[in-house]
Structures are given as structure tokens and as C-alpha cells.
Amino acid sequence: MTSPESTDERAAAYNRGLDAGRIEQRLDGHDEHLRHINGSIDSMTQALQSLTEELRANVFQFSAGVTADRRDTRERENIAAVRVQEAGFVESKRTVRWTAWQRGFAVVGAIILMVNFGLGLYVAFNR
Fold first, then answer.
1. pLDDT of 29 over the 80 cut
2. In this model, does residue 60 exceed pLDDT 90?
């Protein structure tokens, strides 16, 4: 037969087994929870990587746009400077520089024209 000590030993062993089963069950639950957390971390890592790639693409596109705008602005400024120079050159060619004797003849001609016009009106209205 079994002695009371062996029964106590068996009961203690049984209780240890129950405790070990509960601990193993709890550990299995923790393992499952950790796998779930690791999966969440992996999906977050992938989402951050795709967001980083999208952000880099947007920054590159913005940088290219800014560079193009700067280049266009410089080209417009260069074109405007050339047009101003051309306009100055054309304006200087259009400007007529009269000498003193040409101005004198122009004044005398204008006076003669005004006198003739006045005489013409005088003759026309005094008939």
C-alpha cells in the first residue's frame, strides 16, 4: 500500500504539474501576444518605409520644380536684359540728332508756314 508520505508527495507533484500546466498555458498566451506585437511592428515598419519612399519622391519632385523655376527665372531675366539692350539700341537709332543750323531752318520754316497760313485766312475772310 501507499504510505501517507507518498500520497502527500503525489499530491504535491500533482499540484506542481497543475501549476506547470497553468504556467505553460500562460506562457503560450504570452508567446501568441508577442507574435501579434511583432507582426504589428513589422507592418508598421513596412508602412514607415513606404511613407519614407513617398516622402523622398515628393521632396525630389518639389526640388526639381524649384530648380526649374529658378532656371526659368534666370532665363526670363536674361531675355529681359537682352530685350532692354535691344530696345536701347533701336531707340538710339531712332533718335534724330539735329544740328544747330537744321534747328534754325526748322524754326524759320515753321514761322514762314504760320505767316502764310495767317495770310491765307486773312485773304479768304476779307473778300
1. no
2. no
